Amino acid sequence: MKKIKSYNECRDGLLLVDKPEGCTSHDVVNALRRGFQLKKVGHGGTLDPAATGLLVILLGKGTRLSSQVMGGDKTYQGSFKLGRVTTTQDREGEVVAENPWHQIAREQVETQMSELHGDIFQLPPMVSAIKINGTPLYKLARQGQEVERKRRLVHIYRFTLSVWEPPFVEFEVLCTKGTYVRTLAHDVGHSLGCGASLETLRRTKSGEFCVADALTLDVVRTMTLDQLNERILPFERFALRG
């Protein structure tokens, strides 16, 4: 990336980035902060390292829009694997059970997915960023601890099966902020009696923003400041909506 002399040369606003698999949301923030020598950079909603897709980066005054951006509904595409139960509810965790899944029919899966439509209470997984007495749950999980968590109300507008290739099930979900998609997969598997865990996850929309309009991180790394400024959505466009 081209180095710049002053933070003030960067436009205030939002930048849409397509986060690759294997890096954290904070890694993307750091890439912008260090590459362009920016002082104020944040993001509008964390994606797990294994997940890909839309990450809304907040620049300068754009960081004031954090709550507004995080509060938007989210759309994800992904897949889960029937029969596999893990400690983290996804493929990154330790496998604790491998159960028969051949008896499960597509219609059964779709029925259980439809049962999760509407308002539901979710129990946050131990590998979440929710803090208990100031400590994120995932840090406690790494220490082998499991603590009591409060169920959280979320709303599932749509949770549909898109591709049936058992034991893998591809899906799309439209939900409110704070929804744990890995927990949706886990709950479907639990209801079916065979268990399930998340295999892949990609965020395609966040509020009004779409991943189709995002830049890959590799492209961002090659940009000049002028090129970056051309892709920043101006702060003023969204600040007036408050």
Description:
- There is one protein chain.
- The chain is an alpha+beta fold and about 240 residues long.
- It folds into two domains: about 5-70 and about 205-240, 2-Layer Sandwich (Pseudouridine synthase); about 75-205, Pseudouridine synthase (2-Layer Sandwich).
- The protein has helices spanning about 25-35, 65-70, 105-115, 135-140, 180-190, 215-220, 225-230, 235-240; strands at about 15-20, 40-45, 50-60, 75-80, 85, 95-100, 120, 130, 135, 150-165, 170-175, 195-205, 210, 215, 235.
- Strand 5 (about 85) and strand 6 (about 95-100) form a beta hairpin.
- Helix 3 (about 105-115) packs across helix 5.
- The longest helix has 12 residues, at about 180-190.
- The radius of gyration is 19 Å and the shape is elongated.
State the gist of this model.
The chain is about 25% helix and about 35% strand. With about 240 residues, it is α+β, with helices and mostly antiparallel strands.
Element string (H = helix, E = strand): EHEEHEEEHEEEHEEHEEEHHEH
User: CATH topology of the largest domain, what is it called?
Assistant: Pseudouridine synthase
Structural class comes to alpha+beta
Q: CATH homologous superfamily of the largest domain?
A: Pseudouridine synthase
Helical content stands at 25-40%
Strand content: 25-35%
Q: Residue ranges: pLDDT <50 for 5 or more in a row?
A: 2-8
Number of domains: 2
Number of helices: 8
Specify the overall morphology: elongated
The CATH architecture of the largest domain can be given as: 2-Layer Sandwich
Which class of the largest domain in CATH terms? Alpha Beta
Largest sheet: 11 strands, mixed
- Gap between N and C termini: 34 Å
Radius of gyration over alpha carbons? 19 Å
Mean pLDDT, all residues:
90
Number of separate strands:
15
